[in-house]
Design goal:
Length: 184
């Protein structure tokens, strides 16, 4: 899979992050406990942790072809709004995203998710694009539905969410599948 380094939408620019984005990511969302309420990672205590995340996860993921992360920025002004990534495995690709609280409620996560999901499902070898959302995270569930994904069911004890304790949480699974070509 060879994703583009950048996507553009009417209001957003999604681009590969660079190490120098760490301060803006930290300030925008990585240090906010409300943003990390339903994600699989903990609040970043400082910008050094954010820089390490960019280097060890984002940049290394692109280099290995295992994780493709894009920084979500506003088209006007290039303000950091969040991040979205795509994790392909075999004929599937998982999508995950996070959005700064200052950008909530404006349809920006849906806009970012839609462009990535549309691109991924159009790839010849991808037959399923999927994501999960905590049962209590109604806003994220709506994002996935508006991005063209279908709610399939509950995955019990699926995801560890550090801010919620040490027991894995139940999540809704959403997916968009490629129709035809022998699918059942």
């Amino acid at each position: 899979m060879k994703p583009p380094a950048e996507f553009r939408t009417p209001r957003l620019r999604l681009r590969r992050p660079v190490a120098d984005d760490a301060p803006a990511i930290f300030e925008s969302y990585a240090r906010d406990p409300e943003v990390t309420r339903f994600v699989s990672w903990s609040v970043h205590p400082n910008g050094g942790v954010t820089r390490k995340f960019i280097e060890d996860y984002c940049l290394a993921g692109w280099a290995r072809g295992e994780v493709f992360s894009w920084l979500i920025t506003l088209a006007e002004g290039d303000h950091v709004a969040g991040m979205i990534d795509l994790r392909p495995v075999a004929a599937r690709a998982e999508v995950g995203y996070v959005l700064a609280r200052s950008c909530w409620g404006r349809g920006l996560a849906t806009e970012a998710a839609r462009v990535v999901v549309d691109w991924a499902i159009a790839q010849p070898d991808v037959h399923r694009v999927w994501a999960v959302a905590d049962l209590e995270n109604v806003a994220s569930q709506r994002v996935l539905e508006k991005a063209g994904m279908v709610r399939e069911g509950v995955l019990r004890r699926w995801m560890l969410v550090p801010s919620q304790g040490k027991v894995p949480r139940d999540v809704w699974c959403f997916a968009r599948v490629k129709e035809g070509n022998g699918g059942r």
